[in-house]
Recover the amino acids of this structure.
């Protein structure tokens, strides 16, 4: 395996398009998978894994590594696709043995079965507390790396998040970067339809975090935001960082973004997959034209 | 009798278990750079825990009144190679933060040691502050180890023994004002029950505060001519099946004693072992009835529910009649 690093934004956009197509192949071959959330989180996750984490497929346990905590555990399939793309696991295994007895790729990720997964998640609202533990461990050892934690906007309804949010700011754990995939849709409700999240950024700020609200579908903006994060300074720590990435569930597939609530979990047949791959290619080319 | 024996103005005193547990924690943190200690607003304004908190800002933490955060932060530290001890009131640890215990400690299989204080009815604060479900709950979680020391000195031995135990452990301690069971040193091994007293007519299999009260009952019954053995079943999971089967074969009559709901606890686990082993024995369970108990201090509640030495002796006497 070689370390995969993509420096330039058009390459990251191209990679995001490939990963989106892989996700849809999972929806075809593995059957019903979480699809809307993984598609909306694809851009920021690709930017992290292929550029900012410095992720090394051959050395996933390096104590000095940047860490990625998948708090929205139902996005496991997104990480599986990235890991397969990097050569860490077999595509056939993912496409044909997903969520099957005795195989590694579960509907929610298990760290013991899938190399590269930091923590086994699935129950929502745990990732930020994991990050706090990692943060203290790194500080204790003088490791100035980052912990990126991917959350969903619906997930933030879980109260346990706010215990960790309060704590991390209180103790200046600025090596934590919370990334909210703000895809505007939970399993049952559109944003604001039930629980009101019109002031999400204000809430994080009020709890003492440094908040960046960005277009989470624009790879140029994602890249600029991640590149501009201040280095971790163990000597004089600042605020923990929250990036609210505004997206739409099903991002990149127009018939899904038109009805995001219908595509929390979904499956595709051959015909639909072919149609979807064309849509993703078109979407990917449109993204490259942005700035 | 009755009333609190600690001062609420220094909350750390409530966690002390006769000072021994705190002293041991301080020693472990100082001597072993991998040991962490996390509390939940129990650090206290002064005293050894506070001093430790000030001295080790990344290894000794207080997450505030946030038990869910406590458990998962501990898991994070364990994943990075540390040995975290997380301590707070049992009910808020094992009931409120059960999702975190189930997923982040047990499913992720990380060596966090939780210390749940005020086990059973020992708090005196009423049902919200009692913990009557740990044995049943922890027994049903894969990868979990559940231990309950019979006195503070044994808890210290457990803390030492826990350092090399591979998976997560839930340690259930009572209020910390309980009498000592052992007056001589002994070997302590997680998962290996201790025969505290030999007897030929009936064996009491007790855990936690039940051990001391069972010994009191045994002395009373000895005078009446009944030979009563007592086993300290300090490890609820993995249960020492051999000790149970041996006792059943020896006396044929077993009485379990636990400060826990009568349903799903030590008594039920012992019954499971007997049934699976196919060993016939008479079994009586002593524990908290399946109800939310009356208000009252433990000194009054235990006798009320027949959980003191006199009450246990009465139940055993009638059962063996």
């Amino acid at each position: 395996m070689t370390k995969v690093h993509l420096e330039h934004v058009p390459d990251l956009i191209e990679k995001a398009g490939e990963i989106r197509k892989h996700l849809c192949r999972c929806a075809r071959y593995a059957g019903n998978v979480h699809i809307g959330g993984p598609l909306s989180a694809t851009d920021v996750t690709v930017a992290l894994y292929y550029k900012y984490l410095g992720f090394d497929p051959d050395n996933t346990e390096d104590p000095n590594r940047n860490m990625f905590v998948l708090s929205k555990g139902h996005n496991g399939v997104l990480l599986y696709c990235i890991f397969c793309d990097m050569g860490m696991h077999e595509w056939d295994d993912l496409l044909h043995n997903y969520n099957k007895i005795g195989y590694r790729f579960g509907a929610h990720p298990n760290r013991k079965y899938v190399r590269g997964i930091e923590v086994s998640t699935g129950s929502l609202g745990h990732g930020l507390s994991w990050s706090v533990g990692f943060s203290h461990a790194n500080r204790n050892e003088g490791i100035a790396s980052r912990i990126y934690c991917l959350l969903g906007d619906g997930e933030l309804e879980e109260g346990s998040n706010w215990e960790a949010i309060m704590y991390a700011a209180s103790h200046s754990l600025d090596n934590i970067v919370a990334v909210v995939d703000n895809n505007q849709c939970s399993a049952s409700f559109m944003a604001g339809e039930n629980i009101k999240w019109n002031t999400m950024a204000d809430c994080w700020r009020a709890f003492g975090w440094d908040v960046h609200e960005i277009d989470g579908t624009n790879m140029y903006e994602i890249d600029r935001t991640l590149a501009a994060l201040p280095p971790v300074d163990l000597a004089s720590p600042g605020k923990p960082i929250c990036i609210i990435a505004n997206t739409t569930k099903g991002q990149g597939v127009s018939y899904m973004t038109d009805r995001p609530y219908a595509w929390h979990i979904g499956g595709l047949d051959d015909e639909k997959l072919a149609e979807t791959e064309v849509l993703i290619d078109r979407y990917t080319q449109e993204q490259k034209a942005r700035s | 009798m009755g009333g609190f024996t600690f001062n609420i103005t220094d909350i750390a005193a409530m966690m002390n278990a006769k000072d021994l547990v705190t002293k041991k924690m301080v020693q472990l943190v100082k001597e072993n750079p991998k040991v962490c200690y996390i509390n939940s607003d129990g650090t206290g304004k002064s005293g050894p825990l506070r001093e430790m908190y000030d001295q080790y800002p990344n290894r000794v933490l207080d997450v505030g009144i946030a038990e869910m955060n406590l458990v998962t932060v501990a898991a994070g530290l364990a994943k990075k190679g540390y040995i975290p001890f997380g301590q707070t009131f049992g009910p808020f640890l094992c009931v409120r933060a059960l999702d975190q215990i189930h997923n982040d400690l047990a499913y992720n299989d990380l060596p966090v040691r939780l210390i749940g204080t005020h086990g059973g009815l020992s708090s005196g604060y009423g049902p919200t502050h009692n913990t009557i479900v740990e044995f049943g709950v922890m027994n049903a979680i894969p990868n979990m180890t559940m231990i309950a020391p019979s006195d503070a000195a044994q808890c210290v031995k457990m803390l030492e023994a826990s350092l090399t135990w591979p998976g997560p452990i839930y340690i259930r301690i009572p209020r910390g004002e309980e009498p000592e069971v052992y007056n001589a040193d002994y070997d302590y091994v997680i998962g290996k029950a201790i025969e505290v007293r030999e007897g030929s007519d009936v064996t009491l299999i007790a855990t936690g505060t039940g051990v001391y009260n069972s010994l009191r009952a045994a002395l009373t019954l000895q005078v009446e001519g009944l030979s009563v053995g007592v086993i300290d079943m300090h490890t609820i999971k993995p249960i020492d099946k051999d000790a149970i089967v041996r006792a059943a074969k020896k006396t044929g009559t077993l009485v379990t004693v636990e400060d826990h709901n009568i349903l799903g606890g030590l008594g039920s686990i012992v019954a499971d072992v007997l049934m699976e082993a196919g060993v016939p024995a008479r079994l009586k369970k002593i524990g908290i009835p399946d109800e939310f108990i009356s208000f009252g201090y433990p000194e009054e509640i235990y006798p009320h529910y027949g959980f003191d030495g006199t009450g246990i002796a009465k139940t055993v006497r009638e059962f063996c009649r």
